[in-house]
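Side project, low priority. Logging it here so it doesn't get lost.
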Amino acid sequence: MALPPEQDLPEEILRTQVITTARSPVDGKPLTAGEYAQLQAQLQKAPPPKLDPRIQDQVFLIRLRKTLLQLFPFLDI
């Protein structure tokens, strides 16, 4: 009763297994090692498009507001 079920693999065996699958950083789909390497090379050649500068400014202001409210909770901006 105190022993783990037979289908559980010991941790020592799990640590030695080579991981050959990965998840896409773009959409989270499972990939093989070769597909993952291709995707990484493709992302280095053409990185994803940047955000609109207006959106970047809005995100900066929201983060600044959050920080100010943590430092000065009585401001209620």
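Brief comment: Strands lie at 21-23, 30-32.
Revisit when time allows.
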